[in-house]
Structure prediction request, 62 residues.
Amino acid sequence: MPKIPRDISGRELANLLKNFGYEITRKTGSHIRLTSFIKNEPHHITIPDHTPITSLFQIIHL
Prediction:
């Protein structure tokens, strides 16, 4: 299994999520909100716009 990259920025992650149907709907402070419609219902993801987004990986590995 490939390792999760730890040097990706929030902007790069947002661009990768565009491949899965997410669009950037707003940027407030240091966070980016993305929205996708799954079964005609909005699904929101908020990610930090940091370089790198290490705090996200700390949350995943708890």
